[in-house]
Amino acid sequence: MESKTCVKFAHIIAFLLLATSFKTLMAQVERAQVSDGLKSVDESNLVCQGKQIWAELIGVPANFAKQKILEENSLISEVQIVLNGSPVPADFSCNRVRLVVNVLDIVVQIPVVS
């Protein structure tokens, strides 16, 4: 009887892992589509200075993404890590980037200056 319980528990764990990775896989597909569209963006017309969009960071761990953002734009002073679906204030700041992550701490949305 215990082995059936263990098998059911293993199936539940496997399902949860697949469900969380699905968002990351879909985000990687989105990254490829968005990076083509970003080539036409003229950053000279934007209000904030320096790099502002990091489409290449979808699917990477949050700590790596945070380091990369701070390296590539020295004007960014705050990188917030936010769980996907969490509410955030609608205010805008040129020195802030929010990293939207899943439960595995993987970036699932394109990080932008916000």
Automatic annotation (TrEMBL):
Keyword Transferase: no
Gene3D superfamilies (UniProt xref): Trypsin Inhibitor V, subunit A
Lineage: Eukaryota, Viridiplantae, Streptophyta, Embryophyta, Tracheophyta
InterPro entries per UniProt: Prot_inh_pot1 (IPR000864), Prot_inh_pot1_sf (IPR036354)
Keywords (A to Z) from UniProt: Protease inhibitor, Serine protease inhibitor, Signal
Protein family: Belongs to the protease inhibitor I13 (potato type I serine protease inhibitor) family.
Originating organism: Datura stramonium (Jimsonweed)
Alphabetized Pfam families for the sequence: potato_inhibit
Signal peptide: 1-27
Protein's UniProt name: Uncharacterized protein
